Amino acid sequence: MSRKKTPLKVLVVEDESLTCEVLKEMLEGWGYTVHTAENGRDAWDTLQKENIKFVIADWIMPIMDGLTLCRKIRSSGSPGYTYIILVTGKDKKEDIIEGLDAGADDYLVKPFDPGELKVRLRAGERILNLEKELTEKHGRLRELNIRLEELARIDSLMNIGNRRGFHETIEKVHHRACRYDRSYGIVLCDIDNFKAYNDTYGHIHGDGILRTVAESIKRTIRLSDDIFRFGGEEIVVILPEQNLVSTALAAERIRKDIEDLCLEHRGSERRIVTVSCGVTAFQNECDAPRWEIVLDRADKALYMAKTAGRNQVASLPA
């Protein structure tokens, strides 16, 4: 079912009441919604209150004439285009040039033929419709570009941030911590015996485990924390405003939540899917001028957890 078209709003600016009434009746008969004003100042006030994008204005008017109104509309910077037809008894070439130079889109000399006015109205309406269509397409394109930028930072398999997203985020978090004397924690997680899981169950099931583990971690961490796939089966979590102790506690919650899922893993000594976690935390007094040093400490802590038997949390200060 087609949507009913909304009538175009037209503002008629005319100080002669009879001419104004004739124009109003004519335009309404053609299906337009008509507003009226006696001079440019009243017209400007109306344009501030109403979303009107089509103006038919007389040139010679008291208080503010049509030329001044044109210039005011064009310099206002209001969103969307306003189509202006200037109506006047002036018919000299230099007058027409002056009117168009002031910002009018079209020029109609009194007395005008109703048929000519109708044709010019339709031409202006087509331009406004085209401008609206282009604006909507530009808005959709801008939304798509924003979405593409977001997708460029998301790992499509695990539906968490990817390595690029991690690098951009850690740069900001580390800079903020250094500048404002703040802290942050890092948890580096690795799914235990994941190669054996793929060898036992196949890569499709392995992909499912990656998604399940990522979902489990997302449920466990705070909304203010950030999670990323660092590579393969490794996941890194950034925890702003946390020290080594609180980060280790968060890592233990992550480890336990995954263990409690009891996901079968015949290729593991525990017969279920587990993760090992390496933990570190940055504080401004520690000797870590770059975030890469902090991450390296988390990686060393992860190695400690795995060599100590897996399914556990190991910590190292940055």
Question: Could you characterize what this model shows?
Answer:
The protein has helices at 17-29, 40-49, 66-75, 93-101, 114-151, 163-180, 194-201, 203-220, 244-259, 291-307, and strands at 9-13, 33-37, 54-58, 83-88, 106-109, 154-155, 160-161, 184-191, 226-231, 234-240, 275-282, 313-315. The chain is an alpha/beta fold. The protein folds into two domains: 9-147, Rossmann fold, CATH 3.40.50; 154-315, Alpha-Beta Plaits. Strands 2-1-3-4-5 form a five-stranded parallel sheet, with helices on both faces. Strands 9-10-8-11-12 form a five-stranded mixed sheet, with helices on both faces. Helix 2 packs parallel to helix 3 (66-75) and helix 8 packs across helix 9. The longest helix has 38 residues, at 114-151. The mean pLDDT is 91.
Q: What is the CATH third-level topology name of the largest domain?
A: Alpha-Beta Plaits
Strand content: 15-25%
Question: Ranges with pLDDT <50 over ≥5 residues?
Answer: none
Count of discrete domains: 2
Succession of helices and strands: EHEHEHEHEHEEHEHHEEHEHE
Strand order of the largest sheet: 2-1-3-4-5
What is the CA-based Rg, rounded? 34 Å
CATH superfamily of the largest domain: Reverse transcriptase/Diguanylate cyclase domain
- Backbone structural class: alpha/beta
User: Which architecture name of the largest domain does CATH use?
Assistant: 2-Layer Sandwich
Average pLDDT number: 91
CATH class of the largest domain, anyone?
Alpha Beta
Task: Describe the main β-sheet briefly.
Answer: 5 strands, parallel
Report the total helices.
Answer: 10
Number of strands: 12
Q: Residue share in helices?
A: 40-55%
Q: Per the principal axes of the C-alpha atoms, what is the gross shape?
A: elongated
